[in-house]
Amino acid sequence: MASRRLAARASRYRGYLLRDGVILANAGHFPAEIDAAGLIGAAEVTGTREYADDLLTLELGDGRRIHLLARGHMFNLAGPRPLGNSIESMDLGFALQARCLEAVARGRVDAASCVVPVPGPIDADVARSYLDRKYPR
What we know:
By secondary structure, the protein is α+β, with helices and mostly antiparallel strands.
């Protein structure tokens, strides 16, 4: 997968940075992180091939191919069998948010630390709790 930054700029560079056979997939948070319309409409694109499961291959005049999953949409939310985020990842995210809010409410963190990564002890506690429930001893 191409990085979000490279993928977003790919059409501006007209594909010159993309190797033959590259697979572009959006695993980000917004559907416009890959400029799919710009890539598809680029002058260098001489043909396209569509395959099952929302795979589009762009054929460039110099022979390179760019494979685009889900036409640049977030691939876990697009396609014929969208899966979204797993319940486990959602559980962990909500647990982390709740414990962080608790730490703020109890005054264990100050205003300067409210926009920071999850504090280590909370992260470890939530991970341990999840693993204990998922894989009891």
